[in-house]
Specification:
- Helix 8 packs across helix 9 (410-425).
- The longest helix has 21 residues, at 2-22.
- 25% of the residues lie in helices and 31% in strands.
- By secondary structure, the chain is an alpha+beta fold.
- The strands form 5 sheets. Strands 4-7-2-1-13-17-15 form a 7-stranded mixed sheet. Strands 16-19-20-21-23-22 form a 6-stranded mixed sheet, sandwiched between helices. Strands 5-6-3-10 form a 4-stranded antiparallel sheet, with no helix packed on it.
- The protein has helices at 2-22, 108-111, 123-130, 186-189, 263-266, 269-278, 290-297, 352-371, 410-425, 427-432, 442-460, and strands at 59-69, 74-84, 91-97, 138-143, 151-155, 158-167, 172-182, 194-198, 203-209, 214-215, 218-219, 223-224, 240-249, 253-256, 259-260, 285-288, 304-314, 318-322, 326-334, 337-345, 379-384, 389-392, 395-398.
- The chain folds into 2 domains: 1-55, no CATH class; 56-460, tricorn interacting facor f3 domain (Immunoglobulin-like, Sandwich), CATH 2.60.40.1730.
Length: 476
């Protein structure tokens, strides 16, 4: 806790120096005290950045049942939110984020874009110029615990719930939402979440995030954080516990924020044994082999399986699914805890991914924990998606592929490893140190980059070689 307070103290101190850096012609004394630039200390937060004696955080717990429609590239979801008002305030309304609405035809995201028509336009330009993708949430209902409809107002990517009876300090409320939306083709129309289509074997790889209606933050600093999501500045969210069931075609492999609760229902006996072996292995162990993944690519099962995950004390949720996934894992010891470092990737990423991804996760967890605090979660996933780099609690989506013959250059290798380090590192900043990226966009990237440099200084990258993980040998 002392380390976290120290880090936050330094982070907030940078705000003052940052204002000077942005105004090089200022006449202000560069060595002045920072009092005007920092929040006034109060009972909720101290001058050091540590919590005050009356500090509070509202929390939001989620129970979700999700279904992936692989035929139509849709997600159907039902969720129950338990929102806990730990603030001293009485809340007459609540705000919920609807980030998928940035892809609605009437999205404000399109209104702020500046484009021009040339002789021809790409599919990406077509969707963004003419707003033809049928994106955004389709909300079937928003009900209370008794089944009564709430009165709601949707304002682009934000939804306000007006309460008949104010939510008093110390009380909780339940919100039940049923919804669905069309998944975007990430390779054609962009996005941090979506699907990638593999034409050669007619398969999809889904990397899914910012996919469900999520409680906005209410804090003593800003009140409700209800800024619109336009696709750039991201989010801050309340922490909470997640109980999630994901129903997908039975030949798909799923990764998600949290621990799998039903391996006996979704994995073969042999795969379960491999996963158990990986917990104590000093090197990555393959859970789903490339041969098994290639068999699934052509199986096209009409049956479904439900994967059950639970996660505690996280601020968000992400997941992935594909028939194409190869899976390897290795346990990392933190005292008496075992953290599972795991990678999921298609054959198009091999042999590079089986050689480096999980080993890079292990090294990142060990190095970041050395310079900050022990990684608190039980899982850290690295998921391969083409041309992507994005993070969520316990899971991140990372680019980097081999060529058609399975070959890769040193440049591709180094870039892939560094992307994995960076995105896994985001578990610390901002996923655990819950900075508000719509208020201070620089903070998570700045602090994470600082730790990446510290990792390099500690001897993992030097003298132009950048990063030496292991000898170039595939996983045994």
């Amino acid at each position: 806790m002392k380390k976290i307070a120290f880090i936050l103290s330094i982070a907030f101190s940078f705000i003052g120096f940052g204002s000077l850096a942005q105004n090089p012609n200022t006449n202000q004394n560069k060595f002045r005290q920072l009092d005007p630039d920092l929040p006034t200390p109060n009972v909720y937060r101290t001058a050091s950045g540590a919590p005050g004696h009356q500090y509070w955080q509202n929390t939001a717990d989620y129970t979700m049942a999700l279904r992936l429609d692989d035929e139509n590239q849709r997600i159907y979801g039902e969720e129950e939110i338990t929102y806990n008002n730990a603030s001293p305030d009485q809340l007459e309304y609540l705000w919920i984020q609807l980030d998928q609405n940035m892809r609605s035809p009437d999205s404000e995201t399109y209104q702020i874009q500046q484009d021009k028509l040339d002789d021809g336009v790409s599919l990406y330009e077509y969707f963004n110029l003419f707003h033809t993708f049928p994106g955004g949430f389709n909300i079937d209902h928003v009900k209370d615990a008794t089944g009564k409809d709430y009165t709601v107002k949707v304002n682009h990517t934000m939804m306000r719930i007006n309460l008949d009876t104010p939510l008093k300090a110390g009380e909780s409320i339940k919100i039940n939402i049923k919804w669905w939306y069309n998944i975007n083709d990430r390779m054609e129309i962009g996005g941090r979440s979506g699907y990638e289509y593999f034409e050669e074997d007619d398969n999809y790889l889904y990397t899914i995030a910012q996919f469900f209606p999520r409680m906005a933050v209410y804090s003593d600093v800003t009140g409700w954080q209800n800024k619109q999501f336009l696709g750039r500045g991201e989010f801050t969210l309340p922490f909470g516990d997640y109980d999630v069931k994901l129903t997908v075609p039975s030949d798909m492999i799923v990764g998600a924020t949290g621990e799998i609760q039903n391996t006996n229902e979704v994995l073969s006996l042999e795969q379960q044994a491999r996963l158990e072996k990986a917990k104590t292995s000093e090197t990555p162990v393959v859970i789903v082999t490339q041969a098994e993944a290639e068999k699934s690519e052509v199986s096209r099962s009409k049956e479904t399986k439900t994967w059950h995950f639970k996660a505690e004390n996280v601020r968000d949720y992400g997941w992935c699914a594909s028939r194409k996934f190869i899976w390897d894992a290795q346990g990392v010891q933190f005292g008496d805890r075992t953290v599972m470092a795991m990678s999921l990737y298609p054959k198009e990423g091999n042999p590079m991914w089986e050689m480096y991804s999980t080993k890079a996760i292990v090294l990142t967890l060990e190095t970041y924990s050395k310079f900050t605090f022990d990684y608190p979660y039980p899982v850290a996933y690295s998921i391969n998606g083409k041309s992507i780099g994005m993070e969520y609690p316990m899971i991140c989506f990372n680019g980097g592929r081999t060529d058609a013959e399975g070959k890769f250059t040193d440049a591709v290798k180094y870039r892939t490893i560094l992307v994995i380090i960076h995105e896994v590192g985001h578990n610390y900043f901002p996923m655990i140190i819950n900075s508000d990226e719509r208020q201070w966009t620089w903070m998570d990237e700045g602090l994470n980059t600082f730790l990446s440099i510290k990792q390099s200084v500690s001897g993992q990258m030097n003298q132009g070689k950048r990063f030496q993980v292991v000898e170039d040998q595939p996983i045994k």
